[in-house]
Amino acid sequence: MVYASIRWLRLVAGNLLLIVSVLVFAQAFFPYKPFLQGLAQHADYHDEGQVPAPPQFDKIVFMLIDALRSDFVFGDNSGFQFTQSLIRSGVAVPFTAHAVSPTITMPKIKALTTGSIPGFLDLILNFAESDTTSTLATQDNWLAQVKQSGKKLVMFGDDTWLKLFPGMFERTEGTVSFFVSDFTDVDNNVTRHVNPELKQQDWDALILHYLGLDHIGHKTGPRSQHMIPKQREMDGIVKRIYNAVETEAHLKDTLFVLVGDHGMNDGGGHGGSSAGETSSALVFMSPKLKTLNLERKAPEIPTGEFTYYRRIAQSDVAPTLTTLLGLPIPKNNLGLMVEEFLPLWKVDDQVKILNTNARELSRLISASYPEFDKLRGESKCREKPSELESLACIWHTAHTSTSPEEKMKLFKKFSSESQDILTSAATNYDTDSMLIAIVIGFVSLGLFTTAWIVDGIQGSLFHKLLFWALSLSYGGMMIASSYVEEEQQYWYWAASGWGVILLVRELQQGESGLKSVIILVLLRIIRRWNQTGQKHAGAQDISKDFLSHHPIVLWILVFFSYTDMFWRLKRNLETRHSAIVGPVMSISPVVSSMLFKLSMAALDQRELIPSFLMDFAEGFAKVSVVTQAQLVFAILFIIATYLVLVRNPSLKGTNASGVSRIQPFHDILTVFIATQSRLPNIPVIWFFNVMMLLLDDMNLSLLEIILTGLTMQHVAFFALGNSNAISSVDLSNSFNGVSGFNVGFVAFLTFLTNWSGPVLWTSGTVLLMSTWMARQRKQNEKESKKVTDDGKPVATATAAAGTDQKTTGGMMDTYLKYAEVMSTFRAMAMVAVMGACMALRMHLFVWTVFSPKYLFAMVWTGVHHVIVDLVVAGLLHFTGA
Predict the structure, then answer these.
(1) Mean pLDDT of the 854-869 span
(2) Pairing, β 279-285 against β 92-98
(3) The 279-285 sheet, strands edge to edge
(4) In b/e form, how buried is each residue of 247-281, taking b as 16+ CB within 10 angstroms?
(5) Has residue 480 been placed in a domain?
(6) What ranges does the record give for the region Disordered, renumbered to this chain (predicted)?
(7) Could you tell me which residues are beta bridge partners of residue 313?
């Protein structure tokens, strides 16, 4: 008893230390960047008595279309026909705006409004709907400059603006940005304000943030049938606004800006650093811009991947807008005035503008590198200057030059080089805390390692060495960015290697090896089901390229998948006293879930529905999909309640068919996961259950079962389309059954949507351990019935009681061994990821590869490992044992 208590204490302490190390490292690795307080004033950047350059516009309409990738506006297959006509006529000036990773809405709004580059922590804050630490109330931005000048702002659209700019707007209506199932109402709620506001004369800045196009991308991708109609709808809004600017007298000095906060990748996601995600459209529109003679060809052929016209930094928007509006450039701005607009001013004013931009950047250089002030005060340039000395030389030369053209050239050069230095500067990491976190992680790992050294986890030496080879090689892999990006390949090879080992095991036992061969074939199929990672993300796969063109094949597979779910539930819900329960309770969740997926496909992915099913699908889709999803969840909840309160208490270990008590829980989890999965992935869930059935018949040892579960959790994660890129996070099923935004429930569904494969394999592993324990009990019973040579039974009644006690102890021992093995691997993986992030914190890909990997590792450890692998698995284990 004391020994068991020590093991429990070690398990709890080790995992608590692991969580502490994760949180401490995250705080040190993702510091919240401080900003200069207060608002900039013209006097800050102009000599006493100098008059700033006059404004070119009095008002601004800022129309942000979420995920407006550059080709959506500028490409051949674009729905923005009116916008393209404005570009050809010269009244619209187009750019491709480069969005620095992470390409998520909140950080990108910050970049567009402040001109700074937000920290990676903003990615986390982007998902925290109740967060207030992300506010820009105390940070300078062009909206605050408009407000400071005594003007009024109104905003309609994404409620992220309300969190960032509290109390800033005279009128507003926010819409929830994460309700991705909504393509229409979320935009209609913005559009209905457009005409009334264009008639109003009391505002000076009108901000519109449309979300529908981004939602379409998340649900069905950039090539969705909904994409072009949505682009045409948005182009119609552009036409409506531009015509008002042309015709309404109070809007004659209005600048109209159309912009995207980020783009999207081929899968419709964003957050990463691919060309599609970082390339957004940017168009400045006004009849006054005709004088610039900047007529462009439209549609245009890209000069690079998603690069149309000139590529500028997203941070360049803030200084350009404030200068055009005659306002001070915000503090902390790293952007450059877009030089295409300089001819709107006289030469002397152009010099003032560039001088102001350069002086503002020089202050940031001085704040970051105090020695720059001394170098700037020197009157001569060095022969072989350092980076800062070169900047000081440019500064001095620009201010001593008498030629306006030379001054402008030098100010541009100074600003450009300053921007490069400031944007490439490393984050001020708290390395001491990072080291402390890694040490705590090592202590946690050491505690779990004692389970192998002191307790001697049961299993052959070969399997123990295999576990440590898997753990150590995985940890070592974290030091290479390309391996992190393509982690799925590691797990595919590991699973295939394990399948070969199982095949050899079968053959050595005199069996045909057919079960292992089937598992290897299924592994090969699911490996090609969804191409993920970075290098092959756009390559052909079964899900996108075959099933989308052969919807009949898809629905045959889906039908067989749901049929398998039905037969499993029917068989495993039956008892000798309630045979009617099985058919009734098994057909209802399966049919309702399949009809729900059919309705969702009719609304979002019509190309996945065969023609003979289309009329039925459209008819059923008239029923609210929210109601349909709620019906599925309600039925599954009722079945689970029945199992817990009525059916399982009457059973002991197994039902009449000899099935484990936890098998029905696994079956209803399968239906739930199918409901939360993308339609083309439902057959993969069926394949997983087939593999579990084959493994259950192979009489694996406990350590073999745990190794299989550990490997297949990771295989399942990647096989269903996930990767270590933020853009792979799937929100398409995060709002199933949700009529309004509920952060807790949506977070739960988001996790289940993206970690559905690992969760299913956790349940499957517990199920395999349950049947392993049943075999152990049978073996004990056989041993207890043996007789000695004189015919007397070996086991007496007292011994039999001891056997029952041993079985109870065995149940606890089995779970502890499982938890210790899983905790050892997770601690090893977490320490390796933390070590890689610290060692490579100056690496070029630290924010595009290693930071996202750390976020995924946090979820693997804090949510999946602790909650699913330990708590939920423990509840299932002790329920069904």
Answers:
(1) 94
(2) antiparallel
(3) 171-175, 153-158, 205-210, 59-65, 254-259, 279-285, 92-98, 310-313
(4) eeeebebbbbbbbbbbbbbebbbbbbbbbbbbbbb
(5) no
(6) 779-801
(7) 98
Q: What pLDDT, in 10s, does the model give residues 540-598?
A: 888 888 988 899 999 999 999 999 999 988 887 765 545 566 677 889 999 999 999 99
pLDDT top residue among 441 and 779 = 441
Q: Point out which residues pair with 63 in neighbouring strands.
A: 208, 258
Is 27 part of any domain?
no
Beta strand spans in 697-776 (E): none
814 with 848, same domain: the answer is: yes
Average pLDDT, the chain: 85
Q: Among 39-53, 400-414, 834-848, where is mean pLDDT lowest?
A: 39-53
Q: Compute the average pLDDT of residues 136-144.
A: 82
Q: Among 391, 425, 459, give the residue marking a domain's end.
A: 425
Burial class (CB in 10 A: 0-12, 13-18, 19+), 109: buried
Quick one: 314 and 420 in the same domain?
Answer: no
C-alpha–C-alpha distance, residues 520 and 526, integer Å: 10
Q: What are the structure tokens assigned to 544, written together?
A: 């996108």
Note whether 391 and 268 are same-domain residues.
no
Q: List, as one string, the DSSP characters of 524-576.
A: HHHHTTS--SSTTTTS--IIIIIITT-HHHHHHHHHHHHHHHHHHHHHHH--T
pLDDT at 408 over 50: yes
Of 89, 128, 134, 86, nearest to 108 (Cα)? 134
DSSP 3-state of 30: coil
Name residues whose C-beta falls within 8 Å of residue 761's C-beta, 6 or more positions apart in sequence: 688, 709, 712, 713, 716
Statement to judge: residues 654 and 552 lie in one domain = yes
- Are 116 and 26 spatial neighbours (Cβ–Cβ below 8 Å)? no
The residue range of the domain holding 387 is: 345-425
Count: domains in the chain: 3
Cβ-based neighbours of 438, under 8 Å, separated by 6 or more: 21, 25, 831, 834, 835, 838
pLDDT over 70 at 219, yes or no: yes
Q: Find the mean pLDDT for residues 119-123.
A: 58
Kind and range of the H or E element at 139?
A: none
Considering the domain architecture, whether residues 679 and 638 belong to the same structural domain is answered as yes
pLDDT of residue 828: 96
Is 869 a member of any domain? yes
How far is it, in rounded angstroms, from Cα 56 to Cα 174?
30
User: SS in 3 state form for 621-633?
Assistant: CCCCHHHHHHHHH
- Nearest residue to 30 (alpha-carbon basis) of 111, 148, 124: 124
CA distance 330 to 318: 7
Q: Quick one: 329 and 349 in the same domain?
A: no
- 798 CB contacts (<8 Å, ≥6 apart)? none
pLDDT, tens digit, for every residue of 607-623?
888 888 888 888 888 88
| Same domain flag for 231 and 92 | yes
Beta carbons of 588 and 635 less than 8 angstroms apart? yes
* Domain final residue pick, 408, 425, 442: 425
Q: From CA 688, how far away is CA 47, in angstroms rounded?
A: 71
Would you say 13 and 416 are in contact if contact means Cβ atoms under 8 Å apart? no
* Interatomic CA distance for residues 687 and 835, integer angstroms: 36
Q: What is the mean pLDDT of residues 733-739?
A: 81
Task: Look at residue 428 and tell me whether its pLDDT is greater than 70.
Answer: no
Question: What is the arithmetic mean of pLDDT over 685-704?
Answer: 93
User: Under a CB-based contact definition with an 8 Å cutoff, are residues 198 and 241 in contact?
Assistant: yes
**Do 684 and 715 lie in a common domain?**
yes
Buried b (16+ CB within 10 A) or exposed e, 491-513: bbebbbebbebbbebbeeeeeeb
Q: What is the CATH number of the domain that holds 142?
A: 3.40.720.10
**Distance, CA of 67 to CA of 220 (rounded, Å):** 13
Tokens of 401: 């030059």
Task: Give one DSSP letter per residue of 359-403, joined into a string.
Answer: HHHHHHHHHH-THHHHHHH-SS--SS--HHHHHHHHHHHHHH---
Answer whether 64's CB lies under 8 Å from 211's CB. Answer: no
